[in-house]
Specification:
The structure holds three protein chains of three kinds. Chain A is mainly alpha-helical. Helix content of chain A is 70%, strand content 0%. Chain A is elongated, with a radius of gyration of 28 Å. Chain B is mostly helical. Chain B has a domain of 218 residues. Chain B is globular, with a radius of gyration of 22 Å. In chain C, strand 1 and strand 2 form a beta hairpin. Chain C has a domain of 207 residues. Chain C has 20 helices and two strands. In chain C, helix 5 packs antiparallel against helix 10, helix 9 runs parallel beside helix 10 and helix 14 packs antiparallel against helix 16. By secondary structure, chain C is mainly alpha-helical. The chains are: A mainly alpha, B mainly alpha, C mainly alpha. At the A-B interface, helix 3, helix 4, helix 5 and helix 6 of A face helix 7 and helix 8 of B.
């Protein structure tokens, strides 16, 4: 049982944090708090991906020591060469991962980190738009509690409706 | 005609059509933010959408004439499982055509409404956000990489939140509506990316074709099942699948009229496309429909959308809200077609997608014209407009009849096809419910039409005039398209059928 | 002109007429002239087409595919030709009548009125000439939509309410029942909807249960045939001006409905399949029920148009009953009733309108003794009534005879009784009207004076007299008409004798 928990500790952490984030988003009335919940939810996704990428016994995915590539030519042609070399290695097909099998050290998977960089950027953009909206809502409504905002909207709608009724009866009269 | 365009196009345009379609509006967007005048921004946005539309036509031609029916583009010449690829087959060529053509028509008609509803200094930013949204929607449609889809999905969504909130100039309720849309949309996208994470963990790749080829060996893997569920909920929320549609009525009612028109015809359609892509091409039909019996889940949701939201539409007093609920109901029809899991059902759903873009685009454009001259959008405000704005209202009536499904309109054809697909599967009770919701559509659209054509105006002394020509021309293009494709439905039906066939062709996905 | 060009002309002509009316709207006499010339031309072309049909030809026109397997196609066969003749011929008479009525009553929006009429005739022509169920459905809906502005013409609250019930009932039945029936037929017939002599579904191996369900969907889905309980659009549509009622009850709408039921019975189900369908009995009972109950309700109505509306509901069921007999006598009786009832009911309605224009009276109790002042109108009314009742030498006699013959052929015991009871009820609710008007019992009050100084306008008196004469002519023309219709009536021998199956 303990093993079951510990083996999947990262997933348990992800579940707990995500649920906390979602709960905050749904349950709170304060708009800033909802953004906080959303941010927590999105950050936990990053956590999820990064823990997925960890390879047991792996280190940071930067080639070093005997694995580092031999040429250290300046950029330009080397970039093109490296690209061509990588191309041939990858498309040479055949058995798995060509060069990867020759590596001495174990590295974690870099791809989830890269993906999460993008996701973090997206999260930041969402957060900034959200906060800008909160500022505007505060200007327009004077409050940032969503139940109060709903109340104000309801009052406005009722007042508008009453006005329309009056105008209609005056026009008919 | 498309052939003429193809032969006239330079070689670089043909070769790089796929990325250019997305990149041109994306590059124009920050430029538009720097432009001083709204009018110039408008003209540049017309140019941008026209260029994308031409590229979409070229891609359609390439797809139709290519021996494998697929256009593959590797970004940066990185080979497929490593790099991101843009992959166009009959399914997304059709969606690209819809999005770019609606984008073009929408930008053409936008100026009078933007001038009336958005503050002067905000107009360039408005068009900039529109270009970002347009690029994002095209990107979602054209990409063949699952994570890239998320990126573009969020690009389009964030700009959509901004666009919706700009309706605050007219009605401050746009702000909480945009905020709620932001919260729900971000949750949806986050669910999607959690799903992608599970799929990546199980298959090790992000390319949709590669995932499709690796999934059959992983049958029964729980990561895959979890990923499937998360992806479908996430995309369903974006597509306004019932019951994840709560953001839509507020967002459509309070945003600027141009935004509502553009979004109603494109945003949910693109998310629905993504859903179809995942259901049919990535998770093949035998997984999606047989192993997990997903049709059993999607069908009740589609039917509930149709019936419940049509009911809700009947009780609304604001025309835009009625049309918004009607949109959710129409998405329900599409999901019903998709849930059948057969080629006939899918092509009926896609055909309805095409026709709905035309119908709702025309309806919301007509409403934009009314808002321009009269400002109010309740049914009472619409009374008597048949006399004072005949051109606008006749186009509205044509689109409304198409929504109801009167013969000789496009809506009738798609209802027929859906009915045939349902009868083929023996689901006569579903046909009865489709018919019932059509009847509800008669009621809610009929009320509006009755007010427009048969009731006297509420306040005869208030000035009322016809919408400007620049709004009427795209409006009538869409309205006449409804009638034309209602009589000669061959072109859209062929598009939908080849799109459905392409969606099923999972094995041909990988090079 | 080649046959397909003639069919195209029949379809395009009403559109041209509508355009012409719109263009000449401000010159009323010119506008009316457009209607008459156009209607005359239409009738002439339809006669030419019918002559070709009588000679054994089947003119057809293929326009194109709306979608794979769904074609817009037209093919004229005798039953359709009969309906087209009735519709286009009576349009001329109705236009004559409308001119008198609308001007006499000083109605507003006359241009819109005549334009909608033209579209309604287009719908009727499309229904008459359609070669498959899809084309028929499309033009059926065109008919519904184009007659809605006519029903709600007056624009007041009652007219709007009547119009709303009209539209909702007809659209509801056609979207809710007729359309699913069409879709189901498509699937059963292997993706085909053509009208085929002997029945499209005859070789489709449909089980009796499926056939019954389909038949019931068709019977109630074709709301224009006004079977109870989907009949109530008809009395509610009486808020329309009388030319519209004459059109609705004689020429276009109701006849399109029962014509569609006949076409479905003969060309979709076919006599053999229809015979083997248990649901047929149920629809027959509903038709008989409608006949009796409709007549009984008519007895209770004092408003003349309401009484005539319920009479129409009852008379239409004759045609449905004829179709449900599923033998050639039944089909023939139903088809003859289409023409006979058209002429007779139109007479009655036009008389009612003439009375209204002259005196403003709408209730029968106000019409006692009016015959002294309007003798011609009430004589026409008498002739029309006798035709509806079914007394020789007037047109209505033959359908009743054929229906009874068909009932006896099939061994159906109750239909003849129902027909006789219905005739008795017809006498009871129709004959008192002209008799009390022409020969009021002594001591009746003097009827109200004329609202209009000259009484009824001349066209409104002339038109019913023309149709009354038509009732007489149709009685004697029954021989040629029956021979004309024979190939469509499902009689194998007659079909072969007519020179091959269409």
């Amino acid at each position: 049982m303990l093993e079951f928990l510990l083996e999947r500790a990262n997933y348990w952490a992800v579940i707990v944090l995500m649920m906390i984030g979602l709960y905050i988003t749904f349950a709170s009335q304060n708009l800033i708090k909802r953004m906080v919940g959303l941010g927590l939810f999105q950050t936990t996704i990053c956590f999820f991906y990064v823990t997925l990428g960890k390879v047991a016994g792996g280190t940071a995915p930067i080639l070093f020591g005997p694995d580092a590539p031999e040429h250290h030519a300046p950029a330009g042609e080397a970039a093109g060469d490296a690209h061509a070399a990588l191309d041939t290695v990858l498309t040479a097909g055949g058995e798995a991962h060509g060069r990867y099998a020759e590596l001495v050290h174990t590295y974690s998977n870099p791809l989830p980190h890269v993906l999460m960089l993008t996701a973090i950027v997206v999260g930041v953009a969402t957060l900034s738009v959200g906060l800008a909206l909160v500022v505007r809502i505060r200007e327009a409504y004077g409050t940032i509690e969503s139940d109060e905002i709903r109340g104000i909207d309801l009052e406005t709608a009722l007042a508008q409706h009453a006005e329309e009724e009056k105008a209609a009866s005056e026009a008919a009269a | 005609m498309i052939e003429a365009l193809y032969t006239a196009a330079p070689a670089w345009a043909i070769q790089h059509a796929a990325p250019l379609l997305v990149m041109v509006p994306l590059f124009l967007a920050p430029m538009l933010a720097l432009v001083p005048s709204g009018r110039i921004a408008w003209l540049i946005s017309i140019i941008g959408t026209t260029i994308s539309f031409l590229f979409a036509l070229i891609l359609l031609y390439l797809v139709q004439t290519s021996p494998v029916g697929v256009v593959d583009y590797e970004i940066g010449r990185w080979p497929v499982p490593i790099g991101i690829e843009y992959r166009v087959d009959a399914l997304n060529a059709m969606i690209l055509l819809v999005v770019t053509s609606i984008g073009l028509l929408a930008s053409v008609f936008s100026w009078p409404t933007v001038a009336a509803e958005i503050r002067k200094e905000k107009r360039p930013f408005f068009y900039s956000a529109f270009m970002v949204c347009f690029a994002g929607l095209n990107g979602v449609t054209i990409t063949g990489d699952a994570f890239n889809l998320f990126v573009f999905l969020e690009i389009s969504s964030i700009s959509t939140y901004v666009l919706v909130s700009l309706g605050a100039g007219r009605d401050r309720r746009a702000l909480p509506a945009a905020f709620n849309y932001l919260i729900m949309g971000t949750i949806g996208a986050s669910f999607y990316i959690i799903g992608i994470g599970f799929l990546y963990a199980a298959t090790g790749t992000l390319n949709m074709g590669d995932i499709a080829s690796k999934l059959p060996e992983l049958a029964g893997n729980r990561s895959v099942l979890a990923g499937f569920a998360f992806i479908l909920v996430g995309l369903g929320l974006k597509a306004a699948m019932w019951p994840l549609h709560q953001w839509l009525p507020d967002a459509y009612s309070y945003s600027p009229s141009f935004v509502t028109m553009f979004l109603s015809a494109t945003a949910t359609k693109v998310a629905l496309y993504a859903l179809i892509r995942f259901l049919f091409t990535v998770f093949q039909p035998q997984f999606a429909f047989e192993q997990t019996a997903f049709g059993m889940l999607l069908m009740p949701l589609g039917i509930a959308a149709m019936v419940v939201c049509s009911f809700q539409a009947v009780f609304q007093t604001d025309v835009r809200r009625t049309l918004a609920y009607s949109s959710v109901a129409q998405v329900g029809y599409m999901i019903l077609g998709v849930s059948l899991g057969t080629t006939a059902g899918l092509s009926a759903g896609l055909f309805h997608l095409l026709n709905h873009a035309m119908m709702k685009g025309a309806l919301f454009m007509a409403v934009a014209g009314v808002v321009l001259s009269y400002q109010g959008t309740t049914i009472r405000d619409f009374a008597g407009l048949g006399r004072s704005a005949p051109w606008t209202m006749t186009a509205f009536a044509i689109a409304a009849l198409s929504l109801i499904g009167v013969p000789l309109t496009a809506g009738f054809q798609s209802k027929l096809q859906l009915g045939f697909a349902l009868f083929d599967q023996g689901l006569w009770w579903a046909v009865a419910l489709v018919v019932f919701s059509s009847f509800l559509a008669v009621i809610y659209m009929g009320r509006i039409l009755e007010a427009v054509f048969f009731k006297p105006p509420l306040n005869p002394r208030k000035a009322r005039k016809e919408a400007p020509v620049i709004l009427l021309v795209p409006l009538w293009i869409l309205a006449l398209a409804n009638i034309y494709f209602g009589i000669a439905a061959k072109f859209p039906l062929d598009l939908a059928r080849s799109a459905a066939a392409a969606a099923f062709g999972g094995e041909a996905f990988l090079k | 002109m080649t046959p397909d060009m003639m069919i195209a002309a029949v379809l395009i002509l009403p559109l041209l007429i509508a355009a012409g009316i719109a263009a000449t709207g401000w010159l009323p006499n010119l506008r009316e002239g457009v209607t008459f010339v156009g209607a005359g031309l239409l009738f002439a072309i339809v006669i030419m087409l019918s002559l070709q049909v009588a000679a054994g030809g089947r003119p057809e026109l293929y326009i194109g595919e709306a979608a794979p397997g769904l074609e817009f196609a037209f093919k004229l066969e005798p039953l359709g030709a009969l309906f087209a003749l009735v519709a286009s011929g009576l349009w001329i008479v109705n236009s004559l009548y409308s001119v008198g009525y609308m001007r006499g009553n000083r109605e507003r929006n006359q241009t819109r009125f005549y334009i909608c009429f033209a579209f309604a005739i287009l719908g009727a022509m499309g229904v008459a000439m359609s070669a498959n169920l899809f084309t028929l459905f499309v033009f059926y809906e065109v008919l519904t939509l184009s007659t809605y502005p006519l029903v709600a013409h007056k624009g007041d609250a009652a007219a709007q309410r009547g119009g709303r019930i009209y539209l909702l009932t007809l659209l509801g039945t056609s979207i809710g029942l007729f359309l699913p029936a069409v879709m189901w037929t498509w699937v059963l017939a292997g993706h085909n909807l053509d009208f085929v002599q002997g029945g499209l579904l005859a070789h489709a191996h449909v089980s009796p249960a499926v056939a019954s369900a389909l038949l019931i969907l068709f019977a109630f889905g074709i709301g224009k045939a006004a079977l109870m309980p989907v009949h109530f659009w008809l009395p509610n549509a009486m808020v329309a001006p009388t030319p519209v009622s004459a059109l609705l009850h004689a020429v276009a709408v109701v006849k399109a409905g029962v014509f569609t039921i006949m076409k479905v019975s003969i060309f979709i189900f076919g006599p053999d399949l229809l015979d083997a369908t248990p649901g047929r009995e149920f629809v027959m009972w509903v038709a008989c029920f409608t006949m009796i109950v409709g007549s009984l309700i008519a007895l209770t109505k004092d408003n003349l148009k309401a009484r005539l509306a319920y009479s129409t509901i009852a008379q239409l069921s004759y045609i449905v009953a004829g179709a449900m007999l599923a033998n050639s006598s039944g089909f023939l009786g139903g088809s003859l009733q289409i023409a006979a009832h058209a002429a007779g009911k139109m007479t009655l309605f036009m008389c009612a309108g003439a009375i209204y224009v002259a005196t403003g009276a709408t209730n029968i109790s106000d019409m006692k003794g009016l015959g002294r002042k309007m003798p011609l109108v009430f004589i026409a009314f008498l002739i029309g009534s006798l035709s509806i009742i079914g007394i020789p030498p007037l047109a209505g006699a033959w359908p009743k005879y054929e229906l009874m013959q068909g009932a006896i052929d099939r061994g159906n015991a109750y239909l003849p009784i129902v027909l006789i009871v219905s005739s008795l009820l017809n006498i009871a609710y129709l004959l008192p009207i002209p008799f009390l008007a022409l020969m009021p019992p002594p001591g009746t009050k003097e009827p109200k004076p004329f609202k209009r100084p000259d009484g009824a306008p001349m066209p409104t008196v002339l038109a019913p007299l023309i149709t009354a004469l038509l009732c007489l002519i149709l009685f004697f023309a029954v021989g040629p008409v029956s021979d004309f219709l024979a190939p469509s009536m499902g009689d194998r021998a007659a079909a072969v004798a007519a020179g091959g199956l269409p």
